[in-house]
Amino acid sequence: MKRSHHDSADLLLEIGTEEIPPSYLLPASQQMRDKFELFLRENLLTSTEILTMYTSRRLTLLVHELSSHQKEKTVQILGPPARLCYDENGTPTETLIGFAKSHGLKPDRAKVIKTEKGEYIALEKVQKGRMTGAILKDYLPELIRSITFPKSMRWSGDFRFARPIRWILALYGNNVVRFRVAGISSAGYTYGHRILFHKKIAVKYPEQYVENLRESYVIVSPEERLHSIRQGMEQSATKVSGRPVMDEELLLEVSNLVEYPVCSLGRFDEQYLRLPRDVILTAMKTHQRYFGVVGRKDDLLPYFLAVLSGDPKHLHTIMRGNESVLQARLADALFYWDTDRRIPLESRIESLKEIVWLEEMGTLFQKTERLVRLGTLVASVLCADRLPVVERAAKLAKTDLATTMIKDGKEFTTLEGKIGMEYALQSGESQDVAVAIYEHYLPRYPGDTLPETPQGAVLSIADKLDTIVGGFIAGHIPTGSQDPQGLRRHATGMLSIIADRKLRLALNPLVDEALKAFASQDLLRTKNVKEDILNFLTARIESWLQEERFRYDLVDAVLSTRHDDLTDARSRLIALDDLRNSADFTRLVIAQKRVANILKNQPELPALDESLLLEAAEQELSSAISKLKPEYEGSVKKGDYRRAFRQLLTLRAPIDRLFDEVLIMAEEKSLRMNRLTLVKSTKDLFNEVGDLSKIVIE
């Protein structure tokens, strides 16, 4: 990399701070990159590469070969009205001469342009680009001020940042870009590791920056730190013939906490291996941020891995302290475990009466009653052979929330469901029931594991729907970015299960049953909530289908008629998408648009009277519908929508002929109403698969 030449040089900006929370770093660095890319475009500057790096104490922007000046550009300068600039002979007036002279140009460079206000004089002038160094002096402080964080601190007046800024390194080539932000002046130096090398480090050129820091015990590249941690943990684990349990979320967190990672192996008492694996790993992860170690058979070993940012000389002392802290947490967990196992889960059902589920919405005992009711209903539709398992699992699903492990062990609250499964097995429940207790919480977030068993899927759907309905009754309706009870997440989780298992499940009757369950407990405070719930669920289904890249108008078409069954709607969409480019289908859509228009605002229509079908075209259409209807309804019932749409295509010609040859809006009322009824019968038939009038013809 060349340090600099007359056309370009590297730019380095480092914002040195107090420790920034790990989750803030990546979004902040992405902002820096995005904002600088926009800055380049707006200022006609170029570069070959933009890099961002960060640690807990610094945010860094490194730009390779940033052009030394802006590109020249031609600007148009609008002048006075044209009528004032030339006399009757076309000779420039003093007005034009003065205008041109003020911009260093001659009058013959002027031209007349038309604007909304009339004809005006304009000059075109080549504007030389500013030097990049001068632009950066103004822009870099603006860039620093523009970075936003979920939470920020204010100091030095109204300046806000995640944490106080302690130094700013700003170099363009080998020159310091001079500016001042929040009481801090930019300079040509940085600082090394807070403990191992807390000294000023002069940086002469941007390309030396990464190596200068590495020599000062700071690895500024997040990718390099991650690699170093992985490698260090693997090497440490081999000392006990093990391998690390790579928790990717935790790995990212610790890599953003340390500037110079050092991995070390610790040990805990083997007696704690009596605890479930997830309890041990959770005790390690929460607060301590340790990683577990497993053997060749994936069995947990009595060791842990810690990622430290300190002097390797004192690792032994540090690790003894870490071992003591972990031993204490595991001792607490073992106490909870042994205490809880003395009471079978079934005996905890009554204690759910003392635990509030949602403010003013009853207890966990009442939620359990509703879960049994709704879960068995869903099971009767989807997996009747698992009904006893679903009923038993529903009764026990929330009992782990009454255990000391969950109530008193604050770091173990994330294990709800998992610990319920473990306690169920300890209580002698079947594997099927135990797994369903765990799986009914899945998925907990987008991309999470889905239930693998039918009973787990059924219970999860029932629980999430009950939560959604309860949330709406309580008034916790999602609006904009506000969703205090996570109802969108519950709806997405429910739809994920339905889509994954291709379940034919209409949500409308389930919402009815859920509302009845709340009403039976005197918890239904409003009678007008069903429409809001169904609109919410339909909107989630619509979003789901559009995210699958189905056209918005096709989605609108299928959801306009039947909107509460995701799998059914998806099947209709696929069939519709297959046919939409055919000429016959396009003409059919056009016909349905005519049908929709002619039926708009019509009163209730009478039954079809065959004796009033006087024209051959209306007789032909009525006969075609009668012949088609049994087979068509059979196709719809089977969910064979490709066949159903092909059957509808046979009606195109009779429908076209009706509109071409018959006056639908006849003067005689009986004829007019009967013909409208015939037209409506085609719409009713089509509505079994979708409202084709919603489709946009391209």
Can you describe what's shown?
By secondary structure, this protein is of the alpha+beta class. The protein has 5 domains: about 10-70 and about 130-215, 2-Layer Sandwich (Alpha-Beta Plaits), CATH 3.30.70.260; about 75-125, no CATH class; about 225-340, no CATH class; about 345-545, Hypothetical protein af1432 (Orthogonal Bundle); about 565-695, Isoleucyl-tRNA Synthetase, Domain 1 (Orthogonal Bundle). The protein is built from 24 helices and 18 strands. Strands 1, 2, 3, 9, 10, 11 and 12 form a 7-stranded mixed β-sheet that branches. A 4-stranded antiparallel β-sheet has the order 15-17-18-16, sandwiched between helices. The two termini are about 55 Å apart. It is an enzyme of class 6 (ligase). Belongs to the class-II aminoacyl-tRNA synthetase family. One of its GO terms (cellular component) is cytosol. Tetramer of two alpha and two beta subunits.
